[in-house]
Design a protein that fits this description.
Layout: E1 3-7, E2 11-12, E3 28-29, E4 65-66, E5 69-72, E6 83-89, E7 99-104, E8 109-115, E9 117-119, E10 122-124, E11 127-128, E12 138-149, E13 157-169, H1 173-176, H2 183-192, H3 209-224, E14 239-240, H4 251-255, H5 257-263, E15 265-266, H6 268-281, E16 286-293, E17 309-318, E18 332-333, E19 335-341, E20 344-349, E21 354-357, H7 361-369, E22 372-381, E23 384-395, E24 403-405
Parallel strand pairs: 5-13, 14-15
Antiparallel strand pairs: 1-3, 1-6, 2-5, 3-4, 6-10, 6-11, 7-8, 7-12, 9-10, 12-13, 16-19, 16-24, 17-18, 17-22, 19-20, 20-21, 22-23
Helix pairs in contact: 2-6, 5-6
Length: about 400
């Protein structure tokens, strides 16, 4: 078997984490048909082998590769099926009894015997699975054994196997059209919530709250240890305010899911955007909210500006906590980004892996997260502008409301 392309009802596009575009074309491509993807490109934690990392192939050729496959989950009224198009090289013409069939014993998908036709430089058949995709969120390896018959199904010979990572998302196709389906976004959510039943689409609350809570708890568990990984780098966790958070970074670098996944680093808006995307791909509605200081509640004593100060930025909150992949990040901020989840009363802070639940969550978050308040200044050292704080400091008083948190 040289290649297998997957399509069908509910199939979804997965985008590369680095902004390199969508995975397109046959998801399994084994040029020399030895049953193994022979490539110098690194193998990701989910099995992806991305030939695009090798640059353009020679004219008229295709590098071997193994791309992920994603579908929206089935519903009782609208089942989704996998359509696979296996192709193999054959310098001849298929006879009237030539058929291909496939089976994935691990996931229970079977691809019934289907007549072979000419396709590209060889022979192929588009075969739709007999079984519908699951109604639950799924992350699994889809390993399909392919067979060929040249006598109408009386005898079969092995064509080899294709192996791709299969994701089945909790969101339906309409909801997925509004979300960033980057590879790590899909992988983290499907893997964490594997086996969970998604809420109805569109989400109906409070009826869907048990499903929303169960999926949220699974996904949030991936953030609380403050070690969140990309599929292409399972050894180094992404960071908050790390090496790419400097003044030379762009807004996309600092504040978006794409920037976080491309650089492995981002600020609070990027982490909030990322959590929001992960949840929404699984059918859970969430949104980013801003935290801003209420200046009238801050009473700073007389302040002494730092050496080489060039200007006062304003009052900042001191968040002196370990963060994602970074135990000692920059700690002074004029604002912050959190996430609220529809149906759940509370706040989620993905930058630091902490959350507060219940009617008093807003006050609990600021009491736990903020140590105090001070003035921030721009300073100039050796021709480089950076930030520093003044001498005046007001310790955060528990129970006192000093910030406004969006709804």
């Amino acid at each position: 078997m040289q290649s297998v392309a997957f399509s069908g009802s509910g199939d979804e596009t997965i985008y590369r984490d680095d902004g390199g575009g969508a995975y397109q074309g046959a998801q399994w491509y084994d040029t020399n048909m030895n049953g193994t993807i022979d490539s110098s490109a690194p193998k990701y934690s989910n099995g992806t082998i991305d030939d695009q990392l090798l640059g353009p192939p020679p004219a008229g050729t295709v590098y071997e590769h193994d791309y992920p496959v994603a579908y929206a989950r089935s519903t009782t009224t609208s089942p989704d099926y996998v359509t696979a198009t296996p192709s193999f090289v054959f310098n001849g013409t298929a006879g009237p009894g030539w058929e291909i069939e496939g089976s994935d014993s691990g996931d229970g998908l079977t691809f019934p015997a289907t007549a072979v036709g000419a396709g590209g430089a060889g022979l192929s058949a588009a075969i739709t699975s007999t079984q519908a995709l699951p109604t639950t969120i799924t992350s699994t390896t889809m390993a399909i054994d392919w067979k060929l018959s040249t006598d109408g199904g009386k005898a079969w010979q092995d064509l080899g196997a294709s192996k791709n990572h299969l994701y089945v998302t909790g969101a339906d196709t309409n909801a997925l059209a509004l979300v960033n389906t980057y590879e790590t976004v899909v992988d983290l959510g499907c893997t964490a919530a594997n086996g969970q039943t998604p809420p109805a689409q569109p989400e109906v609350l409070p009826a869907s709250l048990p499903q929303v809570q169960a999926i949220t708890n699974r996904i949030w568990g991936a953030f609380t240890g403050r070690k969140v990984y990309r599929v292409e780098d399972p050894s180094n966790p992404m960071t908050y305010w790390g090496k790419h958070a400097g003044p030379g970074s762009t807004a996309t670098d600092l504040f978006s899911t794409l920037g976080l996944l491309t650089n492995g680093d981002g600020r609070c808006n990027a982490w909030a955007d990322f959590l929001d995307d992960v949840l929404q791909v699984q059918g859970v509605q969430a949104h980013e909210v801003d935290v801003v200081i209420v200046p009238s509640t801050i009473n700073l004593p007389n302040d002494t500006a730092p050496t080489n100060a060039t200007g006062r930025v304003g009052i900042v909150m001191d968040v002196n906590k370990p963060a994602q992949g970074n135990p000692t990040p920059w700690r002074y901020f004029p604002n912050h980004a959190l996430v609220r989840i529809d149906g759940i009363t509370g706040l989620y802070d993905p930058s630091y892996g902490t959350n507060k639940l219940g009617a008093n969550a807003d006050q609990q978050w600021q009491d736990a997260a903020i140590s105090g308040f001070c003035n921030e200044y721009t300073v100039l050292f050796g021709g480089v502008t950076s930030l520093a704080v003044g001498s005046a400091y007001m310790t955060k008083v528990s129970g006192q409301n000093n910030v406004d948190i969006g709804q």
